[in-house]
Amino acid sequence: MSLVHRGVLRDAFAEVSHFRSELYACLTARGDALFELCDALLCTDGPVRTLVDLALAPEHRRGHGALYGGLNQGRIDVARLRRALAGVALPRAADGRLVLAVDVSPWLRPDANMCADRAFCHTFGRGEGKHQMVPGWPYSVVAALETGRTSWTAVLDAVRLEPGADVAAVTTVQIREVVERLVAAGQWQPGDPEVLVVLDAGYDAPRIAHLLGDLPVEILGRLRSDRVMRRPTPSREEFHLANPKGGRPPKHGGEFVFGDPTTWGTEQAVTVTDTRLYGKATAQAWDRLHPRLTRRAAWLDHDGPLPIIEGTVIRLVVEKLPSGGVNKPVWLWWSRTGATEADVDRCWQSFLRRFDIEHTFRLFKQTLGWTKPRLRSSEAADRWTWLVIAAYSQLRLARPLATGLRRPWEKPTEPTRHDVGRVLATGEAFSRPAHHKVGTKPRRTG
Question: Which terminus of the chain has a lower count of CB atoms within 10 Å, N or C?
């Protein structure tokens, strides 16, 4: 083993150990029970099916009563845990930029009639494959995206959406708090590239960009294909040339209809990229386009004139889809103007990386058993959610420790590419922190 590789392993082990110490400090009530539950979640054999199975793991040295007692009566210092997540090593783009993805994943509870704080969650694929609204606990998750051939993400925050909550307002506050924690942790400093926040359809990207205008962030969001944008307001000379009889100057320019190519005009930037999965990817960009806002819905209580939120509209078309489906164009809106060809490529490639957070949700639910417990209270669901996030973060940090865990007939992998099973098998990474070695062995209960 080379000295460089040995140093990487030593640094990774130290970072995992430090995070585990911080995690234990965040467990302010029934900490031993919650910490051992997290260890059992990490080291159990196979996917998590029930909480009772975790009580049978060797790492869980208590009875199953302590397991439920920790979830129901325990306490987690979530603010400190969030700061700990913001302080670990985070993945970055090729230019050193932090790229954050935001999405909502539901914990469906359709049969839990007595559970409080349930909201209607949008789902697709259940039953006959139709869009349905199912009662449950929706969680808004923020994660930092990686580059390269990997689907790991660094989860930074999770917020449960209350019934009737304004998703855009909650997301704005969540992104603001995450960015402020990243700045406080030294992850972003003046002079660094702005943080790119990627949103899927369903978020009001222009509104979020307006509310976060005082932060060093760029907003990239997907738009519906039936949207209509407006061009910049024409100058006074242009207005008089087009209207010699005079009249009231317009507040908006001409329409840019996504479904009508005759209204598009000339693009400001066009890129063509050969991709491995999608064939040729063509991206067109139009500069200084904005939505026409009205005093309805979110802007009903806005004081003063409605803002004009200009950005860049990007249309992405690929040659083929790996699934063989219809390759419809994807429309994106970037909160900056004057986009170059490099900016256009960075935007649509970052949007495609956003789908890594879907793999994170699948790992949460199918392997770590995030939505398997039938908890009654939403507070217990929040505690379990943060334990799952803490376990996943330890798996991500322990990836370099799983480098040599290969069977004799398997090919070696890169240090940054490991499947979940290899990382889960790295039991030495999850040694107990110092509080378990100084004569404070917890008692067995239950």
Answer: N
Q: Which two tokens stand for residue 27?
A: 């467990």
Nearest to 160 by CA among 360, 389, 369, 397: 389
Higher-pLDDT residue of 270, 419: 270
Tokens linked to 227: 């949207």
Written as one string, the DSSP assignment of 280-309 is EEEEEEEEEEB----SSGGGTT--SSPP--
pLDDT digits (tens, 9 = 90+) for 175-225: 999 999 999 999 999 999 999 999 998 899 999 999 999 999 999 999 999
Residue matched to tokens 């996504």: 258
Roughly how many angstroms between the first and final C-alpha of the chain, as a whole number?
46
Tell me the torsion sign for CA atoms 91, 95, 98, 100.
negative
Q: What are the structure tokens assigned to 304, written together?
A: 């003063």
- Summarised one tens digit per residue, pLDDT across range 31-63 is 999 999 999 998 888 899 988 889 888 888 888
Closest CA to 392 of 19, 6, 8: 19
Q: Are 170 and 202 contacting, i.e. CB atoms less than 8 angstroms apart? A: no
Top-confidence residue, 50 or 384: 384
| DSSP reduced 3-state for 6 | helix
For the whole model, what pTM was predicted? 0.87
Please state the length of the chain. Answer: 446
Planar angle of CA 354, 357, 362, nearest 5 degrees: 145
Tell me if residue 112 falls in helix, strand or coil: coil
Scan for tokens 């099916």, then name that residue: 49
Rounded distance between C-alpha atoms, residue 378 and residue 420, angstroms: 28
Q: What percent of the chain stands above pLDDT 70?
A: 83
Whether 216 and 182 have beta carbons less than 8 Å apart is answered as no
Residue 368 gets which letter from DSSP? S
Interatomic CA distance for residues 202 and 91, integer angstroms: 26
What are phi and psi for residue 195, nearest 5 degrees?
-70, 130
